[in-house]
Design a protein that fits this description.
- The chain has six helices and two strands, in the order H-H-H-H-H-E-E-H.
- It is mainly α.
- The chain is globular.
Length: 178
């Protein structure tokens, strides 16, 4: 039998103590990389088309961005506190008015990014494997919710690529998350 010099007992102990494939820091960086690319997409849209251009009855790209903003910080607050308040369910005095210009949208995007970083730092690594009920509706593990938020952004950003191409604008490279 081929021996790779691996102590099976040591591997089992390490696996039980550290059942992760990716660190929380690396997962946040992955998400923030996608957010940097989405920000480039917002920047690529002409001001008027960001809020009005649609294809096939889909929302304008700004509508997708508002969805991302409505999930990221409220979702992470839910992860940190166990209280899942949807941004749309907050009392009126706590709601932000939706941005109506590209500048306002980018400003809110950047503020959300900073708040995400602060909230993320408060999440104990073991919390990612815990089960919770997000926004009082969906049961799942915390890592599932985080993957959902990332996947949702990628999906809708893809729609934004179609919008930009239909406007004759070359979108940012999908792989450039710098």
């Amino acid at each position: 039998m081929l021996s790779l010099g691996i102590n099976k007992k040591s591997v089992m102990t390490q696996t039980q103590e550290t059942p992760t494939v990716i660190s929380p820091e690396a997962l946040l960086e992955h998400w923030q990389g996608h957010r940097r690319l989405t920000r480039k997409m917002i920047e690529a849209f002409p001001e008027d088309k960001l809020f009005t251009h649609t294809i096939g009855g889909m929302r304008p790209f700004s509508g997708f961005i508002l969805e991302f903003l409505g999930m990221a910080v409220p979702g992470l607050r839910g992860v940190v506190t166990g209280k899942w308040e949807n941004a749309f369910d907050l009392p009126h005095h706590q709601k932000k008015e939706p941005p109506s210009t590209k500048k306002e949208l980018l400003q809110q995007w950047d503020e959300t990014t900073e708040e995400m970083n602060k909230l993320w730092a408060q999440i104990p690594p073991a919390r990612f494997a815990e089960t919770d009920k997000a926004f009082g509706q969906w049961d799942g593990t915390i890592y599932f919710f985080v993957f959902y938020w990332i996947d949702n952004e990628i999906h809708h950003r893809g729609q934004g690529y179609v919008y930009l191409r239909s406007l004759g604008i070359e979108p940012p490279a999908f792989w450039d998350r710098s």
